[in-house]
Amino acid sequence: MNAQPAQQIPGIYHRKIGDIIVTAVSDGYLDGTLDVMRNVDLEKAHQILTDAFRPARRTSVNTFLIRSKGRTAIIDTGSGNYLQPTAGFVQRSLAADGIDPKSIDTVLLTHMHPDHSAGLTDMSNGQLLFPNAELVMHENELAHWFDDGAMAKADERSAKLFFQAGREQVAPYKSRTRLFGDGEVFPGVTAIPSHGHTPGHTAYLVASGQDQLMIWGDTVHVPEVQTAFPEAGMSFDTDLAAAATSRKRMFDRVSADGVLVAGMHLHFPAFSRLARRGNAYALYPEAWVHAL
Ligand SMILES: [Zn+2]
């Protein structure tokens, strides 16, 4: 008899965008409650998830590898060993794709939250997990999380989870960190500032030939609820109102143009399109294809 499987093969999924290969690399998922949602009737939010056969908030954590012009970047690094045992699988997933982390020359961060930046560094010993990579992010992001005044105003949990841990994750890359305002930040990858969730939160538009992919970062955390109620945000949005404005602007842009989107918290492998439905939106995951 064949052996019974106990787990999935690692989560990797390739998508060609013109001459660029984008690979969704799963970090796993995080479980939580809806109590962290803001600006939404929680009863309605629960009902939406129940109706979608997702009675609890289970959040995919995705990263995206970009192979472009002979170079390799990864957008975000997952949660390392810092959050839940259901996440932290980026290195395992990369290995399954035959990728040596030493061969990754650039790490682009959407923002410095631990489900995105804790995979940079082994926090138990300070060892770099992408030892040859330049670390690249929006200038506001580093400035905010290293701002002692902002940290002093944060509650104890945020001070530890976001400020202190974030500093530990990026500090080992200090001599090779590059900050940007906007523009092309890697071959074929343009930074689209989308601030609010954090002060430097950034989406990345991947473009080659006629093809485009908007990797929209944390535009949504609970896709079913936030496409139905674009106002809805999270307790850990640095600026709830600005995050909602950025979310609506992003929704308008990608739905008007029919642009392929991916996100760090869309259900893996995340490649989807967004359609406008009155005042709300609907996400349509792209069908799986075998060959590039
Ligand atoms: Zn996140």
From TrEMBL:
Keywords: Hydrolase, Metal-binding, Zinc. GO terms for molecular function: hydrolase activity; metal ion binding. InterPro entries: MBL_superfamily_lactonases, Metallo-B-lactamas, RibonucZ/Hydroxyglut_hydro. Residues 60-265 form the Metallo-beta-lactamase domain. Gene3D superfamilies: Ribonuclease Z/Hydroxyacylglutathione hydrolase-like. SMART domains: Lactamase_B. Belongs to the metallo-beta-lactamase superfamily. This is Metallo-beta-lactamase domain-containing protein. It comes from Bradyrhizobium jicamae.
